[in-house]
Amino acid sequence: MEFLVHIEIVWPPETPVEQREEVFARELAQGQRLAAAGQLRRLWRIPGRWANWSLYDVADATELHACLTSLPLHPWMDITVHPLAAHPNDPRALGLGPEAQPPGAATAYAAPGTPAPPAGPTHPTQGDPA
């Protein structure tokens, strides 16, 4: 199951620099372990803030909780979790988007049950307006 997680770090300003460096080093290592295990799939920074969005792919909310609480910065995190569910018009599931298209191909989105347009270039037939 996928979860979109928003994290804000609320770091106490009076904390010694050495402690901050040590905690941040452990945070980096633990994040890399979660990524290597396939649990932490993506991570985006929010510019200008100590905050991020991350995408976790785990079995359930209990496993997500274990991942988040394993992070050394957890005591200083304000976390919001958004469970994600499949959408019937997801472009990837429909085979649309840049991953599914040859370079330069147009992407079209269709209502459910609408047949996909033919692949490849189309040529006007005789009698079509130019």
What does this structure look like?
This protein has a 4-stranded antiparallel beta sheet. The chain is elongated. Helices cover 22% and strands 22% of the residues. It contains 2 helices and 4 strands. With 130 residues, it is α+β, with helices and mostly antiparallel strands. A hairpin with a 5-residue loop joins strand 2 (40-45) and strand 3 (51-57).
The total strand number stands at: 4
Helical content (DSSP H or I, runs of 4+): 10-25%
Q: List the strand order in the largest sheet.
A: 2-3-1-4
User: Which spans have pLDDT < 50 for at least 5 consecutive residues?
Assistant: 116-130
How much of the sequence is in beta strands?
15-25%
User: H/E element string?
Assistant: EHEEHE
**Category by helix and strand content:** alpha+beta
Shape: elongated
Count of DSSP-assigned helices: 2
Terminal Cα span: 50 Å
Rounded to the nearest angstrom, the radius of gyration is 22 Å
Please give the largest β-sheet: 4 strands, antiparallel
* Whole-number mean pLDDT: 84
Task: Name its key features.
disordered C terminus, about 130 residues, about 20% helix
Give a quick rundown of the structure:
The protein is built from two helices and four strands. It is elongated, with a radius of gyration of 22 Å. The chain has a four-stranded antiparallel β-sheet.
